[in-house]
Structures are given as C-alpha cells and as structure tokens.
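TICKET: design request
STATUS: open
ATTACHED STRUCTURE:
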C-alpha cells in the first residue's frame, strides 16, 4: 500500500480572504488598544521617570547606570477616553526614588487626571567596605571597592568613586560589604589646637603667607580661629590641608 501526501496551494481567492481577515484582526486589536488611555498613561509616566532619573544622575555624577521601570496604572485607566492633546505629567509631593509618582492630566475639554506610580530599579556601581572598618580608622585603597547595587531603596547617601571615601576617618563602625556613605565618615583632623600653622591670604592674583597658631582643632573645610604670631591678631580661617589654613576675615 502506498501513501501519498496530498498538498494543495491556496487559490488566489483564498489568499485574499486570509489577507482581509488578518488586516481586520489587526484593525480590531489597534482599535481596542487605542480605545482607552492606558497606553498614554504608561508612556508619559515612563518618559517622565526616565528624564527625572537622567537629570538626577547628571547632577550627582553617577556615571553609567542600568534602569528598569514598571508602571502601576489605576484600575479606571481602561475606562478613560484617549486624550486628543498631549497628557502632562507632574511629580507628586509624596514619593521615593524606588516608587515615583506622577499626576497625569489630560488637557482636553472633557479631560481627566490620574495618579500613576512607577517602580524603579537603578543599578549603579557604588562604594562598599571590603572588610569591617572600626571607628577611628582612616580608609585606605584596600578598604573599599565598587559593587553594582540597586540604589533606589537607599535613603542614605552613597559614593560612586572610591576616592570620595579614601583618606576619611570612620565615625561609626562599618561592617564588611556594607554600603559606605558620608554619614559614617568624617574628614581627619588636620589641625590641632595650639598647633603652629601656615596662614595663607589670597586676593585676586596676590598671595601672602605667615605663621600662626590654631585656637581650636579643625578638619578639612572647618572654619577655625587662628592667631597671627607676628601681629597677635586673631582671624577666621578655613582648614585646607594638614597645618595649612586660608584666611577668610580678619578682626581687630
């Protein structure tokens, strides 16, 4: 017994019918997709979140980061008509980085306003401790490293380069693999009370220096009182490096 596979090519008429059916289904899908404001709410919220985080990254010097977004649309979105004009998204007051919120408004005559939440995951290399760092320890290059973390849930500040942490003193104990932030660190003491310091005064392109005595302890950036050992006058000066201060205002 011989079996044969019987094949037949669709006639031109059948081809046209299939083509029309496909086009019809596509139109139905497109019409149902455009029949409500769901797509508009999703699109404007994502676009707003991307722009906001991009600006944040630029202002804080994040560098390269990976962003993942998930919109949480209101249940009534599917009942809203499509906005003929471009919807406008406004950030709400109560929000966090991991859950951004926007009030999206349709400016049509019969417009609407809906609140959309955008859940975010922002993966970024940040500084962590390579081992437990005890209080009073001055951070060295081997103590910290960069590791990719989701920064969206973080409330505390963080560092994006190890140079920001190196040289600072641990103020509170930091455990191994813990994220390092500015609240845990402080600048090392660069001037001790009673220490002889170099006082530098600058005005325009002219610089003058003399010796002085620190009236109090100071870290980098601190403003302390310093006495000029020659004139015995006391001035305000900012600590810039170990044993060096820049004069701010002289007092008589």
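STATUS: resolved
RESOLUTION: sequence designed for all positions
ATTACHED SEQUENCE:
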């Amino acid at each position: 017994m011989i079996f044969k596979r019987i094949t037949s090519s669709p006639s031109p008429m059948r081809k046209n019918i299939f083509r029309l059916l496909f086009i019809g289904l596509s139109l139905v899908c497109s019409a149902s997709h455009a029949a409500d404001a769901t797509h508009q709410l999703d699109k404007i919220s994502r676009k707003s979140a991307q722009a906001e985080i991009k600006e944040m990254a630029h202002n804080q010097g994040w560098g390269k980061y990976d962003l993942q977004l998930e919109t949480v649309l209101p249940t009534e979105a599917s009942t809203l008509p499509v906005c003929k004009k471009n919807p406008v998204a406004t950030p709400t007051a109560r929000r966090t980085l991991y859950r951004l919120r926007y009030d999206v408004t349709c400016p049509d005559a019969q417009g609407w306003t809906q609140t959309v939440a955008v859940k975010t995951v922002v993966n970024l290399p940040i500084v962590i401790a390579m081992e437990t760092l005890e209080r009073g320890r001055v951070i060295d290059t081997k103590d910290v490293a960069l590791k990719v973390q989701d920064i969206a849930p973080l409330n505390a500040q963080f560092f994006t380069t190890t140079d920001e942490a190196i040289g600072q003193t641990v103020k509170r104990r930091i455990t191994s693999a813990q994220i390092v932030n500015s609240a845990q660190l402080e600048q090392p003491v660069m001037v001790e009370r009673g220490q002889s310091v170099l006082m530098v005064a600058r005005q325009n392109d002219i610089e003058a220096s003399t010796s002085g005595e620190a009236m109090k302890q100071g870290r980098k950036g601190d403003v302390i009182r310093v006495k000029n050992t020659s004139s015995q006058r006391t001035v305000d000066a900012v600590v810039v490096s170990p044993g060096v201060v820049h004069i701010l205002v002289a007092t008589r």
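CLOSING REMARK: The chain has three domains: 38-122, 123-186, 190-250. The first strand starts at residue 66 and ends at 72.
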